[in-house]
Specification:
alpha/beta, about 250 residues, Rossmann fold, five-stranded parallel β-sheet, five-stranded antiparallel β-sheet
Length: about 250
Amino acid sequence: MKINKILIVEDEKPNADRLKRLLLKLRPNIQILSVEDSISSTVEWLNNNDAPDMIMLDVRLADGVSFEIFNKYQVRSPVIFTTAYDEYAVKAFKYNSVDYLLKPIEEDELESALQRYENFMETMPFFGTAIEGLLNYIQPKDYRKRFLLAHRDGYKTVLAEDILYFYTEHGISKAMLNTGTIETVPQTLEELDKQLDPKSFFRANRQFIIHIDAVKQVFNHFNGKLKLELIKNPEMEVIVSREKASALKSWIDY
């Protein structure tokens, strides 16, 4: 049985665009129903549309870990997870017979996954059981709680909860503490985005990762964008794209 209709859930536009290109190359006749970028928008889409033949689902989204979707909606469509999770999580996917693709997604691996689901489309009830098993076996990610930073002739520790936001300046990552102190951190924002708890930190744009307690006010901006005013530095403008605006509002309103 061929796959006709696919829902993509991916919060990084380059990854979503690559996935669309590969899918249409491998299955020119498929219909990509929508590309959603958050837990909240995905649940809303599922509640208002017929079930797709398949869901391509990123594990980590802007407003949390995508497994939360299954707590809010009874998913019956087969799911291919795309993930950068560790080996233990990958074993959990395998054990529960839920397919997965490690990023960056390769064409031959995607083709194998599509063939597998085409072969098993008639066993749809099986997938619901597999997802329940996955939720039981997957372990919460242990997010970074502190940083060891160079200080004078030694080191000092800074708790993640004491950091209001991270930003880049001349290619260097820096952290604004709730004391008003600025510290240099060795990680890139891309690395930090994977290490920080998404319930507390949000990747606002390429220059900023913000803590939820750092947001003083949110303003509407041009073309559906949002502008954030941060405590400790109200004159600094942080612009959130139209694509991420919905995820930001859901994150704050959680």
